[in-house]
From TrEMBL:
The lineage of its organism: Bacteria, Bacillati, Actinomycetota, Actinomycetes, Propionibacteriales. This is PucR family transcriptional regulator. Residues 11-149 form the RsbT co-antagonist protein RsbRD N-terminal domain. Residues 315-372 form the PucR C-terminal helix-turn-helix domain.
Length: 381
C-alpha cells in the first residue's frame, strides 16, 4: 500500500488540492500562489508521511512532523480558522483511505482493518500536533496584540502621542459595575468572584473591534471606536454576562481629547451613582445635576441647607429613599423596614431641621438640588 501511495503521489496531491477548494470554502479563497506553493508542499509532505506510516506500521513522531508544526504556525499567523485546517488534514486522510481501500480483495480484510487503524492513529497524532502549534502561535499573537492595545490605551488616557493609526473619534465609556451577590457570601472567595465577573465583561467588550479597556471590580474606562455599537444593547449584554447592574456614562471625543473625556464620564458616574438608576447616560441627560456638582459659592449654599442632617443617617437615608421612590411613603417604609408612620415622623423632622419640606411639591426642586450639592461637596473628587 505504501508503494501505491508513493507511485501515485503527484496525482493524489492534485486530487487533495482540488477537493480542498471544492469542499472547504476557505481554501477556495486562497491566492493561487499560496495554494500551489505552500499548501501543495505541506500536502505532499503529509502524504509522504502517510506512506511511511504504511511502510513501517508506526505513526511518525519528532522531527518528521516539524513541517506540520511550521505549517500550523503559519496558518495561525494568517488567521486561518483551526477547524478549516484540521478539516484539510482529514480530507487528505480520506483521499488516501479511498485509494488504499480500492485495491483490497475480500480475503485481505484483516490487512484493511490494520491499515484503517494506522490511518486513524496518524490523523489523531496530526490533530494533536497541529492544534498545539496553532494555539501556541495564536496565544503569542494575542499576547502581543493585548500588550500593544494596553500600551495605546495607557498613552491615550495620559494624553501622550501614539504612533499607531487611530480612529477619528472614540466613544469614551465610564463603567460602574455592581457587586455580584456571590461577592458578599462569606464562604466564597470574593476576589475570585470579582475576577470572574470582570472576565465576562471584558469578553463582551472585546467583541467590539478596536475596543480597549481598563477595569477593576467596581468599574473602569473603555474606549470604543466611533460610531460605537448601540450602547443600550451593550449595557444589557454586560449586565447579563456579569450578572450585575452596569451603568454607562459616555461621551464622544477625538483621540487627542480622551483625557478630558475620561474626566467627564467619571464625573457623570459620580452623579449617576447617587441620583439615578442603572442605565446609559450622557452629559445632556445629567446637565442640571452635573452643573450643581461643580464647585461654586452657590453649590456650597445649597449643600449647607442639608448640614443639619449630616450626622443623622436615619433622616438622610429616609430622604434619599423617599425621593428615589418618587415620594411614595409606603414603598419607602418597605425599603427601610419601618412603619409608614415612622417615615412621616422622619419627614417632619427633616422639614423642621432644614426648612425644606419633602412632602410639598414646590420644595422638591430645591431639595433635589441641595442633595446633589451636598453629595458633591462631600465627594473626594
Amino acid at each position: 500500500m505504501h508503494e501505491i501511495l508513493r507511485t501515485r503521489l503527484s496525482r493524489l496531491v492534485d486530487e487533495v488540492l482540488e477537493r480542498l477548494v471544492a469542499e472547504i470554502p476557505l481554501y477556495a479563497q486562497l491566492p493561487e500562489e499560496e495554494l500551489h506553493g505552500d499548501i501543495r508542499l505541506i500536502t505532499e509532505r503529509t502524504l509522504r508521511a502517510f506512506a511511511e506510516t504504511f511502510r513501517t506500521g508506526v505513526v511518525p513522531t519528532g522531527e518528521t512532523l516539524d513541517p506540520l508544526r511550521e505549517s500550523a504556525t503559519r496558518r495561525a499567523e494568517e488567521g486561518v480558522p483551526l477547524e478549516a485546517l484540521l478539516a484539510a488534514y482529514h480530507l487528505g486522510g480520506k483521499v488516501c483511505a479511498d485509494h488504499v481501500a480500492a485495491g483490497f480483495r475480500p480475503e485481505e480484510l484483516s490487512d484493511a482493518i490494520a491499515l484503517n487503524r494506522l490511518i486513524l492513529d496518524f490523523l489523531q497524532r496530526v490533530t494533536a500536533i497541529v492544534s498545539a502549534s496553532y494555539f501556541e502561535e495564536r496565544q503569542s499573537i494575542a499576547g502581543e496584540d493585548q500588550a500593544t492595545r494596553q500600551s495605546v490605551f495607557a498613552a491615550l488616557l495620559d494624553g501622550r502621542p501614539v504612533e499607531e493609526r487611530l480612529p477619528g473619534e472614540y466613544v469614551v465609556v465610564g463603567l460602574a459595575i455592581g457587586v455580584h451577590p456571590d461577592e458578599q457570601q462569606p464562604q466564597l472567595d470574593a476576589q475570585i468572584v470579582a475576577r470572574r465577573k470582570l472576565r465576562r465583561i471584558r469578553v463582551e467588550l472585546d467583541r467590539i473591534p478596536g475596543s480597549m479597556s481598563g477595569l477593576s471590580a467596581d468599574g473602569g474606562i473603555a474606549l470604543l471606536p466611533a460610531p460605537a455599537t448601540e450602547l443600550d444593547a451593550l449595557r444589557l449584554r454586560l449586565c447579563k454576562a456579569a450578572g450585575v447592574d452596569v451603568t454607562l456614562a459616555t461621551t464622544t471625543t477625538s483621540p487627542d481629547h480622551v483625557p478630558a473625556g475620561v474626566t467627564l464620564v467619571r464625573d457623570l458616574l459620580d452623579v449617576v451613582r447617587i441620583h439615578r438608576p442603572p442605565g446609559v447616560y450622557q452629559l445632556d441627560d445629567l446637565v442640571l445635576e452635573y452643573q450643581l456638582s461643580r464647585p461654586s459659592p452657590a453649590r456650597d449654599r445649597l449643600a449647607g441647607l442639608l448640614d443639619p442632617l449630616a450626622d443623622r443617617d436615619d433622616l438622610m437615608t429616609t430622604l434619599r429613599t423617599y425621593l428615589g421612590r418618587a415620594r411614595n411613603r409606603r414603598q419607602t417604609a418597605a425599603d427601610l423596614h419601618v412603619h409608614a408612620n415612622t417615615v412621616d415622623y422622619r419627614l417632619r423632622q427633616i422639614g423642621r431641621l432644614t426648612g425644606l419640606d419633602p412632602v410639598h411639591d414646590d420644595q422638591l426642586p430645591r431639595i433635589v438640588a441641595a442633595l446633589v450639592a451636598f453629595d458633591a461637596r462631600r465627594s473626594p473628587g
